[in-house]
Design brief:
6 helices; globular; 118 residues; 18% strand; Rossmann fold
Length: 118
């Protein structure tokens, strides 16, 4: 397990402009040598394919430990979140300014509840 997490040092963020900007201001932003960023700002004009591609790319990167995704965006790509079963990168759904967190929609929380028979 230690080998799996050894090189994972970044957090990726997918969400609305305010949420992503807040995390970027905290210092998580990174652009690698291939000019690939660890964040994606999603608005009403962002094609669903772009969001799906970013999520898939983030899950394949060996330098990302955690993917933070606003729950509103997560709902759009729920099928991809449900297919992601790896421990790394861990996918965490977060609230956004305009949409409060709803635990009944969180795929990670649903898995935990199934594990404990709830």
């Amino acid at each position: 397990m230690a080998a799996l997490q050894k090189d994972r040092k970044f957090i990726a963020v997918i969400g609305d402009e305010d949420s992503v900007t807040g995390f970027l201001l905290s210092g998580i932003g990174h652009i690698d040598a291939r000019q690939k960023a660890n964040f994606l700002i999603v608005d009403s004009k962002t094609p669903l394919a772009t969001v799906e591609e970013a999520f898939s790319e983030f899950t394949k990167r060996k330098d990302i430990a955690i993917i933070l995704i606003t729950q509103q965006v997560a709902e759009e790509i729920r099928h991809l979140l449900d297919e992601h079963h790896s421990a790394f990168p861990t996918v965490l759904e977060i609230p956004s300014k305009d949409h409060p967190y709803d635990p009944s929609k969180d795929s990670v929380l649903k898995r935990v509840q199934r594990l404990f028979g709830e």
